[in-house]
Amino acid sequence: MMKHEYDFAVVGGGLVGMAIAYGLAKRGQKTIVLDGEDSSVRAARGNFGLIWVSGKGRKRVDYGRWSLESALLWPAFAAELEEASSLSLGYSRPGGINIALNDDALAGSVNMLRELHAHDARLTYEVLDRKQLAERVPEVGQSVAGAVYSKNDGHVSPLYTLRALFLAFERTGGEYVPEAPVKSIERANGGFRIDTGKRVLEAGRVVLCAGLGNRQLAPMVGLTAPVAPLRGQILVTERVRPFLKYPTLSVRQTAEGSLLLGESAEDTGMDDGVTPEIVAHIARKAVTQFPLLNNVRVVRAWGALRVMTPDSMPVYEESATHPGAFIATCHSGVTLAAAHCELLVGWLLGAQRPSLLNYFYAKRFAV
Ligand SMILES: Cc1cc2nc3c(=O)[nH]c(=O)nc-3n(C[C@H](O)[C@H](O)[C@H](O)COP(=O)(O)OP(=O)(O)OC[C@H]3O[C@@H](n4cnc5c(N)ncnc54)[C@H](O)[C@@H]3O)c2cc1C
Question: Of 112, 133, 151, which closes a domain?
Answer without folding.
Answer: 151
